Amino acid sequence: MRIPAHSVCTAIRDDIVSGVFARGSRLTEEVLARRYGVSRVPVREALRTLESEGFVVTRRHAGACVAEPTDQEAADLLEIRTLLEPLGAARAAQRRTEAHLKVLRGLVRLGQERVRRGEGEDLRSLGGWFHETLAQASGSPALIALLTQLRHKIAWMYTVEQSSLPADSWAEHGALVDAVARGDAERARALAAQHAERAAAAHRPRRPERPASVPGPPRVRASQQAVNTAGVRH
């Protein structure tokens, strides 16, 4: 069975974001094909996609390498997100479905429960799921793609400090969902802008060390579906 290029792309991107492949390191088709258990064809397609996203650059005499973003490029990403997330929230207030609202409300309940119980281990992943679903509720494929790419690149370039006031953060999520449910686009935009600005302050530039070696090869699944998109109409 031929493994689709988008699955290989996801696997390589995840390894770049997690630091398996250090910034500036070479990405040869042969090594990547062996690592993920695929042919070189989907690897070649995946590298082209990752280059268009800014994760990979092609260098003369070296071929494909992991990009090395500057501090200014990293700072620009946070600023761009503070502009795009409010737009996504406003669009979500206008275009969301009941399925989107059900998922968003469920995530807010889960997050607030975890905070009350002092269980903060998965709050970050729940927050990521929340913002991904909110973006999907915008009903704009172009905006969804941009916000998804921003999320991956920010995770690659930054570490995020644990919120000292997680209850406040999840209260903001709840207020945002209420505005989206009422169809109040301007209120949703304002709340998302405030939330994005506060979240940006918790980001610290990541200074990854170059790994001595790359771990053994994982296998790439033929189908990878985002956990929060099942059953949600766009």
UniProtKB/TrEMBL annotation:
One Pfam family linked to the record: FCD
> Which PROSITE patterns does this chain map to?
HTH_GNTR
Q: Which organism is it from?
A: Streptomyces salyersiae
Annotated region (Disordered), positions in chain: 194-234
What InterPro entries does its record include? GntR_C, TF_FadR/GntR_C, Tscrpt_reg_HTH_GntR, WH-like_DNA-bd_sf, WH_DNA-bd_sf
Protein known as:
GntR family transcriptional regulator
**PANTHER family recorded:** GLUCONATE OPERON TRANSCRIPTIONAL REPRESSOR (PTHR43537:SF24), TRANSCRIPTIONAL REGULATOR, GNTR FAMILY (PTHR43537)
The record's listing under SUPFAM superfamilies reads: GntR ligand-binding domain-like (SSF48008), Winged helix' DNA-binding domain (SSF46785)
- Is Phosphoprotein given among the entry's keywords? no
| The HTH gntR-type domain, residue ranges | 2-69
**Keywords in alphabetical order:** DNA-binding, Transcription, Transcription regulation
Per the record, the domain of life is: Bacteria
